[in-house]
Amino acid sequence: MCKKLQLLVVDDHPLIASGIRQNLSDAGMSFDLFAASSGEQALLMLQNDSPWDLVFLDLNLPGLHGLDFLKTLKQKYVKLPVIVVSGQDQAGWVNQALLAGAKGFISKSGDKLEFVEAINALQKDQLFLSSRLRQGLDDFRVGVSAQNSGKIALTKRQRSVLLLVADGQHNKQISQNLGISESTVKGHVSTLFDLLEVDNRTACIKQARYFGLCD
User: Fold this and answer.
1) What is the pLDDT of residues 81-115, one digit of tens each?
2) What predicted TM-score, i.e. pTM, was given to this entire model?
3) Which CATH class is domain 133-210?
């Protein structure tokens, strides 16, 4: 008989917990799911004697931010795995979450089957990232490594996207021109923002030209 998992969802939107519950039920998993609307409430709940197996955590929480919650949790409950579930799925955020102790990252715009896949990965003591997030993270870390060495380097795909952004094209146009999905384009643009430490396209183009990346 499979063990019934004890799960905690930390998110200030009740529909997220309901959606996770439905996804896991549809997959035939055995579990009890509890919900907390803030990091502070979750920490109090984790103090009880329940044998918690996994926490699904949003980053943008009222009060204690998700990253700070992760750091606190790591100090108090070292062995309790956390999967971040967030709409802030840019590579920079994924990287920060993993560095803070998360065992995986699920985008709120991703496939609902990823919740089951994440649990299966954790039971095998494996990190979980969707292929899209993993590629974005790999590209981001390559860029950070190059940046730390004194020169920003982009992958061939990142450079192609950057040049089209500099040409004034929107994500849909870039998607059509490069033959990739619009969500993939969005991921590359977000990674470029993170690498260049900007938050909009105008600043991205300005920084890219300063570093000679648009030549």
Assistant:
1) 999 999 888 787 888 888 888 999 999 988 889 99
2) 0.69
3) mainly alpha
Looking at the chain, which residues constitute the CATH 1.10.10.10 domain(s)? 133-210
Concatenated DSSP letters of the chain = -PPPEEEEEE-S-HHHHHHHHHHHHHTT--EEEEEESSHHHHHHHTTSS----EEEE-SS-SSS-HHHHHHHHHHH-TT--EEEEES---HHHHHHHHHTT-SEEEETTS-TTHHHHHHHHHHTT--EE-HHHHHHHHHHHHHHHHHHTTS----HHHHHHHHHHHTT--HHHHHHHHTS-HHHHHHHHHHHHHHHT-SSHHHHHHHHHHTTTT-
